[in-house]
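re: ur question from the group chat, yeah i did fold both. here u go
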Amino acid sequence: MRFHLTAESSSSMKSIVKTNFKQMKNHVLILVLVVSSIIITSCKEEKKEETKTISLTATSDGYIINSSPRIISQYYDGSCGYNIQVGWTSSGYAVRGFISFDISSILPQENEILTINKAELKVYECNTNLQPFDGDNSTRYVEAYLVNYGALDVNDFDLDEISYCGTLATWGYNVLKEYPLDIISSLETFFNSEPEDVSSIQFRIQFTDDNNITDTNNSDLDGSSWQFFAQENNNEYQPVLEIEYTIKEE
């Protein structure tokens, strides 16, 4: 709210001051108090909480083959498109996928508090090859782990996880299906661990009990894999991290 004085009102005010200076002094004091009240109220209103929802696509991804030596690939160029492999190669080597998201855009300023209300990881199936979920008469699931590997290298294949996020997929054979996973508790663990780099949220995706296959001639798992679309596809089936968060001034 602004206050303006015209020339006419200014002239009248001079007359008032001459005739009744004490009365004008009281009016000015009241006006100052009113303006101060408005300023204080305005400052309080500027500190309101702001809640937003953001969908982040993966900034990088890839997979690691547990061969000797280990091999890193940015993506697999398959018939369904660029994808990330999870499972086993045709030579029986275990394969694990990795996804990284840049969250620097939501990090709070020095005088702000960030509260994450909801967080969900989403990937989309590209293909299921052979029997990764039930081969060799054993049930397996695709699991997600929150890790902090920075730039992906071969040692990240079995890097210690910060948190177990949960089961991402219990079955496949459903191309384009969305696989969502609530990761809010894992993000809480991540921030409480005070990692060196908080600008990236990174995941390792793998089957349970994904050891290398020593006898590839007698295993259903030889060449079995589950594949989800990589960020290189640049379409609606990229991996997504959806976060609802609140920013509040301290």
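okk and heres the other one u asked abt
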Amino acid sequence: MAASSRNIWSDDPDVIEERLISLSQEKVPIILAQKGCEGQAVYLQKIHREGSFTTLLFRKTKKVSYGKETCFFLYRLAEHPPQIFKGVPLLDKEDSLAITKPAVIFERSRRKYPRISTSAKSEALYLVPFSSRLCKGQPKDISREGLCMLASYSAFLKRGLRVGPIELILHCHSAAIEPIKIHIPEATVVRVVRMENNRAEIALNFKLDRKNANNVESYLELREMELQSAADRKRKSGT
């Protein structure tokens, strides 16, 4: 499991209110996760105030029911690390879910750059030197500084070779979560393992600009939550 830490981004009620209004007005997709339940994208539809009590109403994109345990809400704004808040469902309907206004919003940061497995639906498109042909690979796992993918074997693919640009389309298991696109200008081959059927496992290292690094961070967070939820469901079912 990926190693990450939470730092308090804000516990100021006015700052939190301003951020929530922005999430609602800009229709920012928010990933809802609860242990043992399937994650999904939700949208903050309404902020209801009654005296000192504020309720948040989210529109669901999938018909998933949630218990009375703590839910986690993860979102990402451009040029910012992922942020997260939590709440216990007050009302859970087929197409909506309500919680009280959070008292704290956290910012997630990683203490190191571990790899995490990608969904099998993910894709990689890349160019190799000495060829103008666009090659296609299947990412196996990714970190903020590295990628391992399966692709067709080529004699040109040797340790130290620079490959690029690479365009990644990273999917989560849930179809309700939009795929995340990553642009890698250039990567260095660090390992090539030839396999059967003229296939190869290729390990790459790279450096990313801030925007694409944040996109990778967001994907790592989403996949971490998905994998944790899947493990919780498996334990509950006893399989």
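fwiw on the second one: The two ends are 20 Å apart (CA to CA). The helical segments are 13-25, 210-237. idk if thats what u expected
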